[in-house]
C-alpha cells in the first residue's frame, strides 16, 4: 500500500500517536499464547491498527464452546487446530499484518524451548497456570520483553503487566506550557520591554499578547515585593486587580486572556519532582554501553540543568494561541523557538559527550529524539514494575490485600478468586464448574454437586488466604465463590471483547512508548462496570 | 456442549430469555456499531434492526472490522449485517441503509422495540433519536468515543437525564467579514476554502447575503457590497468549468483580482498587514525553474505530513481543481443539478482545500499548514481507535442486561479514560432529569391527522384551542418543525396551508411553545401520524 493510502487508512489513529507511534506498531511482533476468545479480541484490536506481525501458539482443537464464545471461530472449524483457525480469520482483518501460528502446547514449549518466546516485542498469555507462567515471566523479564497475563471468567476480567522498566517521553500531557513568566530569558525580557503600553493607540493596546501583559505586570510586582511572586490568595487577587486596572475597556480580549492565565504567573518555573527523581536514579548516574537512549538523554538534560540551564530544564519552545496581530504573534513565537533551538544544540553536545564516553557513536541518538525529549522534559516518566516472582512468592502484598479485602465494594476479591482458581486447576487439571447445576441462577437451589464444587474452591481460597496470613475473612467472599463456580471458568463473549479493548490499549501504549501505561494489575467487574488498578 | 450454556448460567435463565426475545434497534454501524453488533449477536440477541446512512470508506478500516477493502463504497448497514450473520447465521438482523431521520422510522416504529442503542458520531442524529425515544418511551443507551475516551449512559423518559438536559457545546462560528476579507489565523483560511470557495465552485453555495447584511454597519458598507459582487462574479466564472483555462481564471480571480480589490479599501489595512496578491505567471515561471533544478524532490517522505512549498501548493491547486471539475462534469451528464459536497476523506477535496487555504495564508502572511493538519481542522476529525470502541460496546451490552432485567436504578453512566487512575473505568449513578430541559420536560402527544386536508388554522383551532377556555389566547403560541418557524404571533402566513404543503408529513414532530407571560408552561411536541 502506498504511503498516502496508508496515511488515509490509519488517519484516525495517527492523530493519537503520529507517524512515530505508527512506525513502532508496524515494527512490532506480538505473540499470543492460547487462542481464547479474549486473546482473539486483543489481537483483533492490534491487527486493525496495524502491528507488524502476530503469532498464535496453541495446541488445542476447536470445540463447541469455543465456537459459541469466540467471534473468530464458527462451527465449521470444530476439530481443527485453534491456533491455525484464529490466525486465518484474524489475518483477514488487515492485509498489512502478517499472521503466524504454532500448533504446539505452550506449556511444553515453555518447559523445553523457552528461547522461542524471546523473538517477540510483547507476549500475551491467556489461560496459563501459575507454574509455567512464573518460568515464562522470568525469561521475558531478563530479556526486557513485556508480558501480559490475561484472564476473563464470567463477568470478571483481570490483567497484569510484567516487565522491569518502562520509560516514556511522549506522555501526552494536556498542554505543554513553558512560558518562563517568572524567569524571562534575556531575549524575552527585551522583547516585552519594547511594548510601551501607555503610548499605544487603542488598536495596538488591544493586541498586546497576553504573555507580554503578564510579563510586564509581574516584573513590576516583583520590583515592589522583593522579587517574590504573588503567593497568598490576597496577593493573587491584588495582582489580578492591577491587570484589570490596566485594561482600557471590557472589549480588550487580550486582557481577558491575561486574567484567565494569571495563575501561570504565580507558579515558579522549576524542575518537577518526578523529573528530579529520574535525575537521581542510579540508571541516570551510571551509564554504560547498554544504557537506553532514554537514560542517556535524561543524563544529558541533567547535565544541562546543572550547567547552562542554571537549574532549569531546556525550554519547550511552543507558544499557545492568543489574541495578537499576526506579526506580533510570529515575533513572540520566534523568540521562544530560537531559545529552545539554542538549548537543544547544547543538549546535543552533552549527548555527544556522553555517547563518546560510553563508546557509542553520535548517530545512536537522532536529532528528532533530542528535540522531542527537550520538548517533553518536564513530563518524562519511568515506571518500574514488580516481578511475578515477587508477587507470587517472595514478596506478596499481604497487608494491602488484607486491607482492600475488608471493603465489600473493592474488586480485589476477584484477584483472590482468580488466584484460587489457578490453584484449583493445578491440583485438579480442570476449572471449578457448577454451571450445569445452577441453571436457575439461584444458589439456594443448588444441588449437592454444585455445593461440593463450591466447597472445593473455597478450600483453595482458604489456602491462599492463610498463605497471606489473612485471618479476618470477609463475609461477602462466599457470594463471589458461588458466582465464579457458576461461570465454570468460562469466558463470556461480551466480556472477552471488553477486556480485549482494555488490554490492547495498554499493549499499544507500551509498543508506541506514548501515553502512560498501567502499573501493574487491572481488575474489571462487569456487573459493577468499574475497574480498579493495583500494584501487586 | 450447547452454544450458550455457561453464558445462560452466568446470566440467569430469566434474563437470558429476555435477551433472546427482545427487539433491539441499533442506530449507527460505524466504529462502536461494528463492535456492538458483534457483541449482540455473540451474546444471543436475536432480533436486531440496524440503521446507518453511511457507506464504507478506507479510513474506517482501522477499526470497523466488519468491513474490508472490497466493501469500500458499499452500505455500512448491509455489509455489517452480512459479516455478522457469518458468525451467527440464526440471528435475525434487518439492515436499513437510510437516515434515521427519515419519516419511515416513525414513533410507531420506535415503539416496536424494547431497547434502542445509539452508536452514532454526530449531535444531530443523537438529538433526533433522543427525542424519538422520549416520545415513544423506549429506553435508550447512548454512547460515544473520542480517542482513548469513551462514555455510555442510559436515557429513560421521566427517570433519567435526557441527551439534552445538559447544554452541549456549540461549534465555533466566524464572522463572514473575517473569513472573506481579513483572515488572521490558519483556521480562517481553511474555513474560507471549505465553506466558501469549495461550495461556490463545486457545491451548493450558501446563501450568505443575509449573513452579510447582519454584519452591515456604517463602516463596512463598501466591504459588504464588494463581497456580494465578488460572489456574483465567482458564480459567473463557474460557467467556464471544464475549459482549458478554468484553473487559471479561478486563480486570477481569487488570488489576485479579489485581493487587489481588498487592497483598495485603505482603512482596512491601517491596523493590519497588507495582503500580497499572487501572480499566476510568476508562479508558473518559478515552477518551471524548480522542476528543472530538481527532478527528485523527497517524494518518499509522508507528503501529507510536511509543509508544501509555494509551487507545490500552486501545482496542487491547478491539479485538484481539474480533478474536481472532471468529477462534477461527469456527474452532470446524468444529473444536470449535480453538485459536490465536501468530504474530509475525499482526496481531491482535501488537496484542493489544503492548496487553496495555504495560498491564501501566504497572501495574508499567515502560518501555513500540512495536509494532515488541514484535514483535522476542516473535517472536525475525532481520533478513533478499535480499542476504545471495543470497551464502549462492551459497556453498552452490560448496561442493556440491566435495562432488560428492569434494574434501571442499577444502571450507570460509565466513563473510560485510561489516564484516570486507579479507576480507568468509572461508573456514576444516573442523574435525574433537568426540570428546565425543554426537550424531555415537554409533553409528547401523538396527533392523528389527515395531512392532506388539515391546515395550520385547523390545528390551532381544534387542537391548541381545544384545551384552552379563553379564545383570545389561541394565537399566543409559536409553532416549529425541524427548527423552522411555521407560525408565531407575528407570522401567520401559513394559516390556510395544509400540513402536507408545509412539509409536515407522517413521522414529523411539531413543537408548540406557549408565548404567554406564564413561564410555567413547557412546549408540547406533537408527533404527526397521518391517517
Ligand atoms: Zn432533558
From TrEMBL, chain A:
SUPFAM superfamilies: Activating enzymes of the ubiquitin-like proteins (SSF69572). Residues 10-527 form the THIF-type NAD/FAD binding fold domain. InterPro entries: APP-BP1 (IPR030667), ThiF/MoeB/HesA (IPR045886), ThiF_NAD_FAD-bd (IPR000594), Ubiquitin-activating_enz (IPR035985). The keyword Lipid metabolism does not apply. The keyword GTP-binding does not apply. GO terms for cellular component: cytoplasm. One of its GO terms (molecular function) is NEDD8 activating enzyme activity. Pfam families: ThiF. One of its GO terms (biological process) is protein neddylation. Keywords: Ubl conjugation pathway. Signal peptide: none annotated. CDD domains: APPBP1_RUB. It comes from the Eukaryota. Pathway: Protein modification; protein neddylation. PANTHER family: NEDD8-ACTIVATING ENZYME E1 REGULATORY SUBUNIT, UBIQUITIN-ACTIVATING ENZYME E1. Belongs to the ubiquitin-activating E1 family. ULA1 subfamily. Regulatory subunit of the dimeric UBA3-ULA1 E1 enzyme. This is NEDD8-activating enzyme E1 regulatory subunit. The lineage of its organism: Eukaryota, Fungi, Fungi incertae sedis, Mucoromycota, Glomeromycotina.
Automatic annotation (TrEMBL), chain B:
ATP binds at residues 28-33, 52, 60-63, 76, 121-126. The active site is at residue 177. It comes from the Eukaryota. Residues 448-518 form the Ubiquitin/SUMO-activating enzyme ubiquitin-like domain. GO terms for cellular component: cytoplasm; SUMO activating enzyme complex. GO terms for biological process: protein sumoylation. Heterodimer. This is Ubiquitin-activating enzyme E1-like. It comes from Gigaspora rosea.
Amino acid at each position: 500500500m502506498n504511503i498516502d493510502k496508508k496515511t488515509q487508512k490509519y488517519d484516525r489513529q495517527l492523530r493519537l500517536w503520529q507517524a512515530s507511534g505508527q512506525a513502532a506498531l508496524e515494527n512490532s511482533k506480538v505473540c499470543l499464547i492460547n487462542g481464547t476468545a479474549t486473546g482473539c479480541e486483543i489481537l483483533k484490536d492490534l491487527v486493525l491498527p496495524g502491528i507488524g506481525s502476530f503469532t498464535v501458539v496453541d495446541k488445542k482443537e476447536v470445540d463447541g464452546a469455543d465456537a459459541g464464545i469466540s467471534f473468530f471461530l464458527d462451527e465449521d472449524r470444530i476439530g481443527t487446530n485453534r491456533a491455525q483457525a484464529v490466525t486465518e480469520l484474524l489475518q483477514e482483518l488487515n492485509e498489512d499484518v502478517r499472521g503466524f501460528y504454532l500448533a504446539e502446547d505452550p506449556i511444553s514449549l515453555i518447559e523445553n524451548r523457552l528461547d522461542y518466546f524471546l523473538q517477540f516485542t510483547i507476549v500475551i498469555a491467556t489461560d496459563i497456570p501459575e507454574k509455567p507462567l512464573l518460568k515464562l515471566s522470568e525469561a521475558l523479564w531478563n530479556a526486557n520483553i513485556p508480558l501480559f497475563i490475561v484472564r476473563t471468567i464470567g463477568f470478571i476480567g483481570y490483567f497484569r503487566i510484567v516487565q522491569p522498566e518502562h520509560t516514556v517521553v511522549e506522555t501526552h500531557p494536556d498542554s505543554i506550557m513553558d512560558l518562563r513568566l517568572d524567569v524571562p530569558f534575556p531575549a524575552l525580557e527585551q522583547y516585552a520591554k519594547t511594548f510601551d503600553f501607555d503610548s499605544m493607540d487603542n488598536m495596538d493596546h488591544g493586541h498586546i499578547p497576553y504573555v507580554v501583559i503578564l510579563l510586564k505586570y509581574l516584573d513590576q510586582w516583583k520590583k515592589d515585593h522583593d522579587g517574590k511572586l504573588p503567593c497568598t490568595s490576597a496577593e493573587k487577587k491584588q495582582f489580578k486587580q492591577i491587570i484589570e486596572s490596566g485594561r482600557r475597556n471590557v472589549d480588550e480580549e487580550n486582557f481577558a486572556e491575561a486574567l484567565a492565565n494569571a495563575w501561570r504567573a504565580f507558579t515558579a518555573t522549576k524542575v518537577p519532582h518526578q523529573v528530579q527523581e529520574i535525575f537521581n536514579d542510579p540508571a541516570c548516574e551510571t551509564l554504560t554501553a547498554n544504557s537506553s537512549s532514554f537514560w542517556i538523554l535524561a543524563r544529558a538534560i541533567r547535565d544541562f540543568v546543572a550547567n547552562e540551564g542554571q537549574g532549569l530544564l531546556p525550554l519547550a519552545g511552543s507558544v499557545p494561541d492568543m489574541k495578537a496581530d499576526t506579526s506580533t504573534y510570529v515575533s513572540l513565537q520566534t523568540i521562544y523557538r530560537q531559545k529552545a533551538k539554542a538549548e537543544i544544540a547544547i543538549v546535543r553536545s552533552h549527548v555527544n559527550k556522553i555517547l563518546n564516553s560510553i563508546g557509542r557513536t553520535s548517530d545512536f541518538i537522532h536529532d528528532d529524539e533530542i528535540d522531542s525529549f527537550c520538548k517533553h522534559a518536564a513530563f518524562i516518566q519511568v515506571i518500574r514494575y514488580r516481578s511475578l516472582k515477587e508477587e507470587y512468592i517472595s514478596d506478596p502484598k499481604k497487608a494491602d490485600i488484607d486491607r482492600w479485602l475488608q471493603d465489600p465494594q473493592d474488586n480485589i476479591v476477584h484477584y483472590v478468586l482468580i488466584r484460587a482458581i489457578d490453584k484449583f486447576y493445578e491440583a485438579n487439571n480442570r476449572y471449578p464448574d457448577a454451571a450445569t447445576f445452577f441453571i436457575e441462577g439461584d444458589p439456594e437451589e443448588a444441588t449437592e454437586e454444585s455445593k461440593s464444587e463450591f466447597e472445593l474452591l473455597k478450600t483453595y481460597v482458604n489456602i491462599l488466604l492463610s498463605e497471606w496470613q489473612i485471618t479476618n475473612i470477609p463475609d461477602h467472599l462466599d457470594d463471589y465463590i458461588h458466582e465464579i463456580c457458576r461461570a465454570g471458568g468460562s469466558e463470556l463473549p461480551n466480556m472477552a471483547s471488553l477486556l480485549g479493548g482494555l488490554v490492547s490499549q495498554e499493549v499499544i501504549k507500551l509498543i508506541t512508548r506514548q501515553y502512560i501505561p498501567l502499573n501493574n494489575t487491572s481488575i474489571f467487574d462487569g456487573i459493577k462496570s468499574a475497574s480498579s488498578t493495583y500494584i501487586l | 456442549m450447547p452454544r450458550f450454556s455457561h453464558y445462560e448460567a452466568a446470566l440467569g435463565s430469566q434474563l437470558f430469555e429476555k435477551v433472546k426475545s427482545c427487539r433491539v434497534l441499533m442506530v449507527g454501524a460505524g466504529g462502536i456499531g461494528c463492535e456492538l453488533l458483534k457483541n449482540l449477536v455473540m451474546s444471543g440477541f436475536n432480533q436486531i434492526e440496524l440503521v446507518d446512512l453511511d457507506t464504507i470508506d478506507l479510513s474506517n478500516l482501522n477499526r470497523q472490522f466488519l468491513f474490508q477493502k472490497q466493501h469500500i463504497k458499499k452500505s455500512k448497514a448491509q455489509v455489517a449485517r452480512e459479516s455478522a450473520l457469518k458468525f451467527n447465521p440464526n440471528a435475525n438482523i434487518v439492515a436499513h441503509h437510510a437516515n434515521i431521520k427519515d419519516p419511515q422510522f416513525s414513533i410507531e416504529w420506535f415503539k416496536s422495540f424494547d431497547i434502542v442503542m445509539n452508536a452514532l458520531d454526530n449531535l444531530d442524529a443523537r438529538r433526533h433519536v433522543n427525542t424519538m425515544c422520549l416520545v415513544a418511551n423506549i429506553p435508550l443507551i447512548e454512547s460515544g468515543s473520542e480517542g482513548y475516551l469513551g462514555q455510555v449512559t442510559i436515557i429513560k423518559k421521566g427517570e433519567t437525564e435526557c441527551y439534552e438536559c445538559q447544554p452541549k457545546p456549540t461549534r465555533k462560528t466566524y464572522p463572514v467579514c473575517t473569513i472573506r476579507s481579513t483572515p488572521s489565523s490558519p483556521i480562517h483560511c481553511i474555513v474560507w476554502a471549505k465553506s466558501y470557495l469549495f461550495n461556490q465552485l463545486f457545491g451548493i453555495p450558501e446563501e450568505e447575503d443575509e449573513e452579510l447584511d447582519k454584519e452591515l454597519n456604517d463602516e463596512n458598507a463598501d466591504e459588504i457590497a464588494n463581497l456580494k459582487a465578488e460572489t456574483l462574479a465567482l458564480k459567473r466564472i463557474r460557467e467556464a468549468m471544464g475549459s482549458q483555462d478554468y484553473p487559471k481564471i479561478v486563480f486570477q480571480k481569487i488570488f489576485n483580482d479579489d485581493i487587489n480589490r481588498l487592497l483598495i479599501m485603505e482603512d482596512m489595512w491601517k491596523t493590519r498587514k497588507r495582503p500580497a496578491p499572487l501572480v499566476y505567471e510568476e508562479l508558473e515561471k518559478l515552477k518551471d525553474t524548480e522542476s528543472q533544478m530538481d527532478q527528485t524532490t523527497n517524494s518518499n517522505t509522508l507528503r501529507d505530513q510536511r509543509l508544501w512549498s509555494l509551487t507545490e501548493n500552486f501545482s496542487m491547486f491547478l491539479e485538484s481543481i481539474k480533478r474536481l471539475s472532471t468529477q462534477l462534469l461527469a456527474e452532470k451528464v446524468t444529473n444536470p443539478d449535480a453538485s459536490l459536497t465536501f468530504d474530509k476523506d475525499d482526496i481531491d477535496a482535501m488537496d484542493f482545500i489544503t492548496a487553496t487555504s495555504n495560498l491564501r495564508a501566504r497572501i495574508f502572511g499567515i502560518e501555513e499548514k500540512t495536509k494532515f493538519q488541514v484535514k483535522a481542522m476542516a473535517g472536525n476529525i475525532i481520533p478513533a481507535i478499535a480499542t476504545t470502541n471495543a470497551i464502549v460496546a462492551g459497556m453498552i451490552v452490560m448496561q442493556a442486561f440491566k435495562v432488560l432485567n428492569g434494574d434501571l436504578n442499577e444502571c450507570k453512566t460509565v466513563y473510560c479514560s485510561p489516564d484516570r487512575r486507579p479507576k480507568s473505568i468509572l461508573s456514576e449513578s444516573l442523574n435525574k432529569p433537568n426540570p428546565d430541559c425543554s426537550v424531555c420536560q415537554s409533553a409528547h402527544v401523538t396527533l392523528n391527522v389527515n395531512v392532506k386536508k388539515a391546515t395550520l388554522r385547523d390545528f390551532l383551532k381544534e387542537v391548541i384551542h381545544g384545551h384552552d377556555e379563553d379564545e383570545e389566547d389561541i394565537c399566543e403560541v409559536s409553532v416549529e418543525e425541524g427548527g423552522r418557524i411555521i407560525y408565531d404571533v407575528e407570522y401567520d402566513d401559513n394559516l390556510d396551508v395544509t400540513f402536507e404543503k408545509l412539509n409536515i408529513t407522517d413521522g414529523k414532530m411539531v413543537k408548540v411553545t406557549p408565548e404567554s407571560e406564564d413561564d410555567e408552561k413547557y412546549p408540547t411536541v406533537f408527533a404527526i401520524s397521518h391517517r
